[in-house]
Amino acid sequence: MKKNTPYDHDQLVTHLQINELLIKNKFVHCDDVSYRWVQIGQSQQQGMLVFISNLVKKDLLDATILRELLSGMQGDEPCTIAQLQKRLISASDVRVASKITEVATDILSGRAVLFVDHDQHALSIDVLGWEHRGVEKSENEVSIRGSQQAFTENLMNNVALVRRFIRDTRLKVENNIIGEVTKTPYVILYMAGIVDENILQQVKINLKSSKMDGVFDSGLLVEKLRNAVKTPFPIINRTERPDRVASLLLEGRVIILVDNSPVALSMPALLVEFLQAPEDYYENFWLQSGIRLLRYLSLAMSLTVPSLYVALVGYHHELIPASMMPSLMSQREGIPLPTMVEVLIMEIVFEILREAGLRLPRPIGQAVSIVGALVIGQAAVQAKLVMATTVIVVATTGITSFTLSGVGIASATRFLRFPLLLITGFLGLFGFTIGIFMIMIHLVSLRSFGVIYTGALAPRTWRDLKDSLFRTPHQNRAHVPWRNQNMD
Amino acid sequence: MISVKQLNYLTVIVIFSTGILYLPSIAISQAGNGGWISPFMSMSVGMIVLFIVFFFYHRFAPKTLTEYLPLLVGKWGAKILGLLYVFFFWTVGLKVIREITGIVRITLLPNTPLIVICFMIALTVIYGVYCGIEALARLVELLALILPAMIIALMAGLMGFIHWDAFLPLMEFGWQGVIRGAFMPSSWFGEVIVLAYLLPIVTMNKSSLPRFLLSLVVTAFLLSSLVILIIGVLGVSEAARIQLTVYELMRYVQFGAFLQHIDALFLLPWLMFMFLKALLFFHVTVIGFSQSMGLVHSQFTIIPFVLLSMVFSHWIFPDEFTLNQFLKIIWPNYALFFELVIPIVLLLLYWTRRHKIQSMSLT
Amino acid sequence: MIKYSVIFHKNIFNWLLVIVLMVLITGCWDYHELDKEAVISVFGYDLISPYHVKVSAYLETTPKANSSSNGNEGGMKKPEIIRADGPTIYEAIKNMSVYTPNELTFHHHVISILSEKFVSSPHFGDGLDRITRVGATRRRGLFAVTSGQSSDVLEIKLPLTDDLSEGLLNLMEAAKEQQYSTQVDLNDFLYDLTLIGKEPIIPRILITQSKSTSFQKRIKVYGSGAFRGTRFVGWLSGNETRGVLWLRGKSGHPILRFPWEGGEIMVQAESIQTKIALSQTSRASKEQIPFLIKMKWQGKIVMYTGHRSLKVQDIPSIEQGVENSMRPVIQQSIRRAQALHTDVIGFGNTFYSSQPSVYRQKYLSQWNDRYFPQIQYIVQIKAKILNIGMTSHAPEERD
After folding, report:
1. pTM
2. What does the pLDDT average to over C159-187?
3. What ipTM was estimated for this complex?
4. What angle is formed at CA A73 by the lines to CA A69 and CA A75, rounded to 5 degrees?
């Protein structure tokens, strides 16, 4: 020991008993921590193995550490940690630790830590093996064609899934830890050479500067990453599909994977990528271009249809085609509520049904949707509580919002629909114009990590349109839309 | 940064959006069925202004009009002239807000109090200015293609209803009438003077002038095609009689039996274009004001500017008729003074003192 | 100052939200429900005495609710007609809204039926100003004149349709195709009215009593009323209307019938192109102004009752027959217009187009009264048969 240096409270010492006390002092009232004493081989040297029995894989522990330790090395001199690491322990991921906090974190994250007498270092061995879900089919981002696997809660597994798509040394994986208390591991993935360094730095700074106690899902990081940009639009994309992550990486995005979260975050995000789906690239481009245009139409419709309906029925009757007038007028007869309130209530009821269907177990969820469709739709119309057209409008709005594959953008239109409905209800088409204008100018003023959010649409070139509005053949679109735009 | 393309679109929209309000009726009442030539004559005024703006831009590259005025007219003269320009741009913004209010009142909300409509427009403008000039430019780029689409839809819907005999005899009031019909609308083309404030924030090379000239030609062409539609469909004397000629045209469009009453399809983008114009002019007001007063944080000044313009627009134009008469008779003279006369005087000043100015700008 | 801007910057959304709500909660000034409206689709204007105008309105009615809840599709629509009168049109329409619980709206107005007496009075001119001055009127609104009471027309049920406006529209379309009458909307009328040297016409609606057992009234769109300015001056028969429409160059597919080679032949026009020009400009300052009318007729044979098999060399003589049967129609229509002292064809406009200043100085004021009734004209018709149909001759026994 170096006598000169002041005593460090975080440092392990050479006496095993004292080390044990230090560790036990850290883990007061932590009964799931196990302490296993062994005698190493023929020597009189004592060793102590500390681990959390539920997090480690017992077979592995027995085979790679305990058996080796018990058989020991030739000779009976006590051996050092370094020797043990080199010669005895047959585990692949092994590292030497000398700090108590470090050791504690290792134990908590499922490693076994070996202390031996006469050594101030400890050996941290990866024998991780808790119960977790296997790789399953993606439930929330279903696609007909292409890879079906989805991320799981296991971080390293997830990284491995991405690695399987990109076999290139330029794919960089940076491990980090976030959360003052939870100390959740997370990984920053990017393609060196393709990613924009400024964006990468900004992501790192945003994450470093965030002080959080606990991180349980990648969703919690989103608000930290957005850095106080107030907008209902998602400026960070998310996905649970490794193939999507791989393609985003190739387009120069920074990906963040968080432990215990099956959802990856991708940034910077552009408006257009929320309207893209994996099949777009795997299927015939003629059809998929049309379908993509359909998604743009759905986006516009899910935002505007209820408001336009209110504007026409409540304000500007002269704009209704003459052939539709009699039918609409007869429907309207005897309806108690004003059209605007009627649509608003129906929209709220629809949202309630949707939320109810989401939370309930699947069989009951279906029952709820049937009851909702029948009762709210059919019965309300027959009882002359709402107009049949209102039900059609609300249903159309709902269905159009389901077609949007990017979950984030659908939630934005879901939210914005209501203020737009209100302002149209108060001021007719003029209010509608104002609402749309404000939404649009807000949209074009957005930036995601310095990249213009509406890139490829608003600062546009013909080249950008090839993979935004349309999906042209692959050989035609070998460039990343937002990369040629100037950053400042 | 704004790109040259965005600014070109902006030029077209700025001139076109409010130009179609009064240009057709003024041009047709003065030039008869030769009114469709008038936009091209008015365009020449815009070109002169554009040449002057570019001339100064090449001399004092990264400076705006307010910033290079001291070199031409001295410190105090520059301050006064700069504030006068701020006032001018503010009045243009005011005028546009009042025009939108008027149109909305006539077409969409006949019973709603003017002040409510005006207030909502003011809010939109405040929010838009807050979002920044780059957002404005991008929105222009996003919406720009709707403009030709609108004209094409109008053409397609009305081509069968054009009475071609309305154009005979060619130019019934001769060239004199055409020129008389072109004088007043030229104030709209003169509005390209705002480029004196916008060019410094544009990424461009020195040869962008032809593209701006082209955008003026496109504007004149679009306006002219509208005038042709108006003369052909409504007739000369009807066109001169109707207040919102273009709106009447939009209401006449009908595709088949079902797609009738589709004026909202044209009205909505049109209103948005007018919003964009109001936004631009309030932006320039703020830029000009902050530059001549030397302010660093300038965005908040938009609130007093917009709210004041709301009050003044009601005070000056209590009703549509006053607005109409003011815009037809007084406005062109007032606007052309700022758009054409002052720039030409500045040009002469530069010419007489050019050696001195060159040495000043070098230091 | 800077602090103020920061506050604004941070709370922009809250600011906007509060202000918007403050303004908006106070009221929806233009909000009105669909069922609170009375949508007028057809107007009828009558003149009872010189200062007594009667206005009738045909309302767009809805299928009654109780019949539709039984599961029946729709239910019969009963026409609802409201009437009101007053010294002027404006007063009459105002009175009409006094008698109806719902708000009268004009935006889906399709057709105005004008009685002969009404259009002969100055009320029509005043009314035109009124309807163009209010914003609700669309220029698509059609016009029709009738010789009796226009309110009678509103009460007639058309076969096959419950909707009078739609039925009238279709009748006019059909008449326009045959060119015995035409279709004139507000815009066309105002265009003809304001164009120098041209007067408007408006299609005529006739009420016919069928002679059969069922004592039913029927509507027929046939002929037109000629106007001079906004005043009605006289009727044009179906054939005269045809002539006027041909001379105006309106599109349509009229059928002509004339005897030829021991049978009758019917031809249908595919296009008729007309060009009217001043025939000799040097003599234009004379009292009698000469015009040259050049017409180009193209069409097909739709019926032939004779027994000849049609051959290529027969075509010129059929074309000659077309020309011969068209010429009297044209001459008759011009004679009629001259007799009525109204230039519904637009000869004056042709003159004005080629010599604007001469026309303005000398002819403009007296065109209809002095110069138009004595114009000289030459009609040159060039007919061309494009198609003789699917067969060569009528079916007959083989020799």
Report:
1. 0.89
2. 88
3. 0.94
4. 135
